[in-house]
Amino acid sequence: MLYDLTLHMGYTYDTPASGARHIIRLMPLSLSDRQRLVAGSITISPSPDEQSHFTDFFLHPATSFLLRSPHETLDIRMQARVQVDSRSIAADFSPDLDRLPKEVAGVWSLEPDSPHHFLAGSPRLTETRAISDYARDCALPGLTVLQIANALCTRINRDFTYDTEATTVDSTALDAFTLKRGVCQDFVHVMILALRSLGIPAGYVSGFLRTIPPPGKERLEGADAMHAWVRVWCGETLGWIELDPTNDMPAGTDHIVVAYGRDYSDVAPVIGVLKSYGGHRAVQAVDVIPIK
Predict the structure, then answer these.
(1) How far apart (Å, rounded) are the C-alpha atoms in residues 104 and 109?
(2) Where are any strands of DSSP class E within the chain?
(3) Taking the mean position of all CA atoms in its chain, how far away is CA 59?
(4) pLDDT tens digits for 209-253?
(5) Predicted TM-score (pTM) above 0.90
(6) CA 172 to CA 169: how far, in whole Å?
């Protein structure tokens, strides 16, 4: 599939902000096995006083910029064309839980995609007894790592209600788990913690999801969304597999990858600091348009 993507992120401040320094991670990745960035651009208004580009540890292209002068709004727009290919369906060659530690130990690499980075706690995720107990219910004897991951994906989708009002971007995995409500970020954080509690390496994927309108309904402009799903290491032979607990499905050609990380803190699309007081209002609109 070939897609044209557009993203608009806008912020309006109650009082002018100044001394704002931000880092943005919005451009889709080029991945040798599934995705190619054909072209892309990011525009920022007002025009930054300083701007630089760098690649972080997990190989994401990122942009850092500084706005010294007071400004009442910040407008960020991204445009990109991306080719997404179907991934071949492989047989389940993942080990069972008893054999997984040996396969993890056999990986000597500490490159960004090494499973060693995705086993322990991370900035937004620490071990939680309730979620560990929840995970053990899916780790039945004789199941492979992939079977356990699929079972957790299905159970979270069944047990949790998608609710944009239940949590905020700062809510913890335990908050969402207790409520059994939240958004894709919450579903993903709970699933990652559950998998790690079993000794299964798991990480966070940030990206875009093409939404398909119901039959007979017009596609609404700006109705697509930034999305998140889970990356699971299923042993030396199978490697990394991506699952979407919000929709209970493997990531496919409707999923477009922007960034990989341990949790949301590694892949947040916009982070930064500024000088201001009062509140702000934010808007986001995404379009994922198939063109071929």
Answers:
(1) 10
(2) 2-24, 35-45, 50-55, 61-67, 71-84, 161-162, 181-182, 202-209, 225-233, 240-244, 249-250, 255-261, 270-275, 280-290
(3) 15
(4) 987 766 666 654 445 778 999 999 999 999 999 999 999 999 999
(5) yes
(6) 9
